[in-house]
Amino acid sequence: MNNSDKTLRILIAALGGQGGGTLMNWIVSAARQNDFHVQATSVPGVAQRTGSTSYYIEISPDKNAVLGLVPMPARVDVVLSSELIETARMMDAGFVSPNRTTLISSSSRVFSTAEKINLGDGRFDAPAVKDVAQKLAKTCHLLDLEQLANDHKTFISATMYGALVGSGVLPWPADKSRVILETGGKTSPNLAGFDATLAALQLDALVNEHEDETEQPSITSLSGFEDCAPALREVITLGHERTIDFQDAQYGALYVTRCKQLIDAAQSDHTAQATLIEACRRLALWMAYEDTARVADLKTRASRFETIRKEAEIKDGQVFRITEYLKPRAEEIADVMPRWIGERIMKRAVRGGWFPFIGRGIYIRSNGIVGYWLLRSMAAFKHIRRKSLRYHVEQEAIENWLAKMTQALRDAPDFAGALAQLPRVLKGYSDTQQRGKRAFDMIMADIVDPAMDADLSSKTKSLRGAIAAALADENHKSFDQFMQTGEIEIQPPTLARKPAHAH
């Protein structure tokens, strides 16, 4: 609380549907029941997710105090946030002050539209946000409030309320705040979530234990990589699991062999660790490419149905239907066929030959009997994947990339760092996959291949620019411009959101 005017200023940052308004009402009710003067306002904003709303509360023991309607930078005592990038937005706006502000934030993420539509890895750097939060706030509490809410089958507003009370910033006892929730019964989910979060905040050891469990899952590292950095061992272990899940143990062993090839090429160069981590990560994603069999398999997994059920909040006894929209192309059919059949299909497609069902939209209910077994039949093509056309095409491209990565790691680490990023342009399926493959082939032919017989380092800038351009927009206009002129201006995503009028 501000020592000069004894007014407590609280700023809440939440997303639509998280119960931010309810949380505000709880705080206001608790303040009034404890005979404090209180005022609250909300500012709904235009966001890239589900609506970003700020709630501002001023609490004072002075009944005659004039309370403000909007928060002022560097004059907020408590910032309470439901999501990590909302926290970053609050810090960017100047509301978190190192000599004043108690910052309470959930470490969970709700990805913005800008992050999800990015053709590469568009996620904001969560560890960097946490690091800044710890340094910028006077007192900082970070824990997964979303997970605590899910564990107790309640909304994040209840765990945010518990975190606020547990931080000790409110000028009345914790039990006075808890009474507000008892109107729903002493066994209500809101109370359970509140109590769990209150306990976590009051015992720092529990907070640290919770962070360790959520941020660093237990991973049994593979043997043979003991001399590698922990981060690299973790990536290789996860990549090994992914490639086994994609095909089988033999395919996972092939991934490990390829990783060792890259590590040996680096010749124990510790400065190459970041490049090796990225290369091994991209290699795993590339080897587990999304062909028709893979997509069908993922769409019919029990874990997917359960995730959809939770996200849609489907209750027991309610019926829900999942309808998939498929639009098969000749390329996707040819990809999963044995190589000689796939090549014939592609030749016919190039000549403009007709195929049944090709290019027509099809709706399939994946959690219905017919639709489910149709997709499972498509997933069964996994068992002949090694004979398929796309498998041969992908393995040839991977081996070509590996050979160039090996040379670059030995001769030009800076070029290797850029080349490790090149598989980022290969992603998705259908039209997205075809555009990515076109960009990959052009970059290989026009930049990487010529560089192999020249000064690799001199081509690093061009390679990085081409990759960034290929990921800049879906239609590859920026990429085509870069390949013609060598220049492009790419606008980075922003955290800013414009608020609407206050209410």
Keywords:
single chain, 503 residues, alpha/beta, Pyruvate-ferredoxin Oxidoreductase, domain 3, 4 domains, two-stranded antiparallel ribbon, 22 helices
Structural commentary:
The protein has 503 residues and is of the alpha/beta class. It has four domains: 8-215, Pyruvate-ferredoxin Oxidoreductase, domain 3 (3-Layer(aba) Sandwich); 219-284, no CATH class; 292-387, no CATH class; 410-503, no CATH class. 51% of the residues lie in helices and 10% in strands. It contains 22 helices and eight strands. The strands form two sheets. Strands 2-3-1-4-5-6 form a six-stranded mixed sheet, sandwiched between helices. A two-stranded antiparallel ribbon has the order 7-8. Strand 2 (37-45) and strand 3 form a beta hairpin. Helix 2 packs across helix 4, helix 10 (230-246) packs antiparallel against helix 11 and helix 12 packs parallel to helix 19. The longest helix has 23 residues, at 389-411. The model is unreliable at 205-219 and 496-503 (pLDDT under 50). InterPro entries: DUF6537 (IPR046667), IorB_Oxidoreductase (IPR052198), Pyrv/ketoisovalerate_OxRed_cat (IPR019752), Pyrv_flavodox_OxRed_cen (IPR002869). This is Indolepyruvate oxidoreductase.
